[in-house]
Amino acid sequence: MPELPEVETIRCSLLENIGAVIKDIEFRRTDIIKVQDYKPALLLGQHIRDIRRRGKYLILDLEPGYTLVVHLGMSGRFYMQDEDAQISAPHVHMIIYLDNGYKLIYMDARRFGGVRFMTDPEKIFCHMGPEPLSEEFTDSYLREVCRNRKAAIKTLLLNQNLIAGIGNIYADEALFAARIRPGRPAGSLRPAEIKRLRQAVVKVLQASIAQRGTTFRDFRDGYNKSGEFQQLLQVYGKTDCCCNICGQTLKKDIIGGRSTHYCEHCQK
Ligand SMILES: [Zn+2]
Fold first, then answer.
1. Where are any strands of DSSP class E within the chain?
2. Ligand 1: distance of its center to the CA of 5 in Å?
3. CA 184 to ligand 1 centroid distance, Å
4. pLDDT of 117 over the 90 cut
5. How far is the CA of 236 from the centre of ligand 1 (A)?
6. Which of 24, 200, 240, 260 is in the most buried spot, having the most CB atoms within 10 Å?
7. Binning pLDDT at 50, 70 and 90, where does residue 218 land?
């Protein structure tokens, strides 16, 4: 599933389309439209004023009061192609034709994602926690989040209302980098561990953005190209693999309903 680094990578690769005008929007399926505050046809003739990200959401700002919010779900892709390039890929559900020679393509094989034509996307975002790469994500914020909580620290990291944009990949990787067991009750973390975890979250997300995200199966950037961070993964998805630090076989558990990989020796 595309998480913060993947959506940020898509955002950066689509920035050259800021300023372009929407000429047409073609839907091949309309059940990908999750919210429709206004008719999509009202976007024809409007400029893309900005392309932003919040958590795992990509936001195209058009004229004031018109935004298109894209969520890629498990397997979605949102990328640009030359206007006259053939669309041979299956599962393409929406095509946005621009006046700059490109078209934006939304595809999603499993259709857990979707698009939202919203007048005010803050309706979604006001419930979300801070961005982990912003100044709001401090040691004291994370201490406050963990205080007296019995839930596993991994479960808290995945909660979008507490921290935006982290999913299974970066929760596992950050906990490994911080040497903290994913199943530890969050309230049991000491201040030094919380500091380590916050730094690990930031470091892992930044490292992944630098590698243009993780392509485990489906993720592609805004040019429909794979990321590279999967080559640097330490624990995520590594069933029957050995820890790169101590050599022991990594352990796999289910925590909060999500498969979780960690090293029993290195993570306490
Ligand atoms: Zn280890």
1. 22-27, 33-36, 50-54, 57-61, 67-71, 76-82, 92-98, 102-108, 114-118, 251-255, 258-262
2. 25
3. 17
4. yes
5. 13
6. 260
7. confident
CATH number of the 139-262 domain: 1.10.8.50
Q: Decide if 4-125 and 139-262 have a common fold.
A: no
Where do the structural domains in the chain lie, given as residue ranges? 4-125, 139-262
Residue 149's alpha-carbon distances to 96, 127, 143, 154, in angstroms, are 45, 19, 10, 12
Q: Is the pTM of this model over 0.85?
A: yes
DSSP output for 184-200: SBGGG--HHHHHHHHHH
CA distance 247 to 241: 9
Alpha helix stretches (DSSP H) within 37-152 = 122-125, 139-146
Q: What per-residue confidence (pLDDT) applies to 4?
A: 98
The pLDDT of 238-254, averaged and rounded, is 97
- Is 56 catalytic? The answer is yes
Q: How many whole angstroms from 139 Cα to the centroid of ligand 1? A: 25
Side by side, the strands of the sheet bearing 102-108 are 22-27, 92-98, 102-108, 76-82
Classify domain 4-125 at the CATH class level.
Answer: alpha beta
Please give the share of the chain, as a percent, with pLDDT higher than 70: 100
Catalytic residue among 3, 6, 8, 173: 3
Q: Which of 11, 56, 154, 198 is catalytic?
A: 56
Residue type, 169: I
